[in-house]
Amino acid sequence: KDVQKEREPHVCLSKEEVKEKIQSYNSSVTDKLKMTLNANGIYTGFIKVQMELCRPITVQSSQGQGRCAHSNNETAFYLPDGCVNTLHISSTNTVREVIEALLKKFFVADNPAKFALYKRCHKEDQVYTCKLSDREHPLYLRLVAGPRTEMLSFVLREHETGEVMWEAFSIPELQNFLRILDKEENEQLQILKKRYAAYRDKLEEALGGVWKPG
């Protein structure tokens, strides 16, 4: 179970400290996704982001796959659980820019304001999850934590239910969501009807056995 953790303050590192950390980082990398320090002090590298989306996303119809509802040239569909994407970013990129780049990479038409980036840390047999602010820098967090995803990983989620910015959704998106919800409601209703019909049959069978003349 995730536990909310207080956000850690950003510590300004000198160019020499950044260089040392990058050298240490690259010496520990096992997947060849190393960081590079440029002459201007900006460094580049890779982050992996796990997609944990509960609501459907909207993409161009040619890109959509899986369970979906169509509207003109767009498709709303549920992204498979556990999907992980890799992004190449720089130390100047903010959380908001990372979210925008991630959605653009996969032709997602949804407003980036619907999503939030979280960091997940494992400490003392606990899983700590913290929502990142739009101005934080994910690559800096990756550098400080090191390359091991057990120490730090990134997760893309929708804003919490109470934080949903419904004005960020277009009319076709909302209509698609309603169609999907209607479909799921009908499916669940049919499952419940079959379950109670089976119960009813067993009860009637049991009652018939009780009242059957001996």
TrEMBL record:
Q: Which InterPro entries match?
A: RA_dom, RASSF1-6, SARAH_dom, Ubiquitin-like_domsf
Q: Which Gene3D superfamilies match?
A: 1.20.5.110, Phosphatidylinositol 3-kinase Catalytic Subunit, Chain A, domain 1 (3.10.20.90)
Question: What GO molecular-function term can you cite, just one?
Answer: zinc ion binding
- Ras-associating domain: which residues? 71-161
- Where are the bilayer-spanning segments? none
Q: Name one GO cellular component term.
A: microtubule
Q: What is this protein called?
A: RASF3 protein
